[in-house]
Amino acid sequence: MVKAFSSFALHQQKIIVFGATGMVGRQLVQQALFNGHTVRAFGRNVYTTDFPDDPNLQRIQGALFDATEVLNAIRGCDAVLTAIGGGTDSNDKTRTLGIKNIIAQMKKAGVNRIIGIGGMGVLNADDKSLLIDQDDYPEEYKAVGLEHRKAWEMLKESGLEWTFVCPPNIINEGPTGSFITAEDYVPLPNKYQVNAGDLALFMLNELNKNEFLKHRVGISN
Fold this sequence. Notes:
With 221 residues, the protein is of the alpha/beta class. It has one domain: Rossmann fold (3-Layer(aba) Sandwich), CATH 3.40.50.720. Helix content is 30%, strand content 23%. The strands form two sheets. Strands 1-9-11-7-6-5-2-3-4 form a nine-stranded mixed β-sheet, with helices on both faces. It has a two-stranded parallel sheet with strand order 8-10. Strand 5 (79-82), helix 3 and strand 6 (113-117) form a beta-alpha-beta unit. Helix 1 packs across helix 5 (196-209), helix 2 crosses helix 3 and helix 3 runs parallel beside helix 4 (142-158). The protein starts with a strand and ends with a strand.
């Protein structure tokens, strides 16, 4: 089922954003603060990133693979939003190693809600197999797509309350509020792109509405 975005009243929470200095991460931090959430921004370059000057923002400079640093960052939060990225070749395991550590530390901290970002290849094709397994799936996207699939499989097995957003090409633009979503499938019509701001807007929307618990989500402007 395709869903169009609609606005609603936000319930303020304490959240942590992993990958906070990236294209989507910065949008998550900015929009979450604008809507009154208390935000922990986790990343290597949080002190050199131009975040809003806000008393509800805590910058945490840390390493994604460090168990103690990630655990301490998650403790006391209501939810985790992860926008961690990485390279597109088969040698970069940032996404899978990162999500593995985040899941482990969430369980220790007693935090159950996580919303993460994958890629469109993890969505279902018409025959309910994955798009990444189709013969015509672009070879140049396969390595990163396999990382996204492993991250999704870890979330499925985690026992956590997860949502995995699977966008097409992400454009470095702010939110428009005009986008559509679909559960486990590509939404139609699909423009094969989504603004980073709209992706962040959806994630914060989902944080409160919980419409896609334990599902993948297709999204498009």
